Amino acid sequence: MQGSRLDPGGARVGSVTRDVLGYRDPALDALLEHAFSDLNALSMASLYNQADSQIWRDLPSVPLFQVPTALVGERTLLNLHDSATWMGPLWNAEIWALEVPPASTSTTTSTAPSHPSTTAS
Fold first, then answer.
1. Is pLDDT above 70 for 8?
2. Is residue 108 in a domain?
């Protein structure tokens, strides 16, 4: 899967990351391309503000919820947390770890059961 310049995260995570409604507008694409290539911070901010205003004017709906996820794992799996973003439950998989119980430090000794000794009288 290959991401586009307008959605570079799409290739990295293998999913749609920004345009979940299929919104397309060549004028907006041109405005964003211009903003991406502008080296003047004030001009770039103005272009992004124009793009933001256009998106809000055109946006047919605003997603108000996230798809619920369920995480199931062993108690020994550390750092397993869901993310409230589009990245989902694997967002921090690179820091997951298995907890290894510490080696037993106690020593056990085996003693033979004591038997009453029989003595001849």
1. no
2. no
Q: Range of 79's domain?
A: 65-100
Cα-based distances in Å from 55 to 17, 22, 51, 98, 113: 16, 12, 6, 44, 84
- 3-class secondary structure for the chain? CCCCCCCCHHHHHCCCCCCCCCCCCHHHHHHHHHHHHCCCHHHHHHHHHHHHHHHHHHCCCCCCCCCCCCCCCCCCEECCCCCCCCCHHHCCHHHCEECCCCCCCCCCCCCCCCCCCCCCC
Q: Considering the entire predicted model, what is its pTM?
A: 0.39
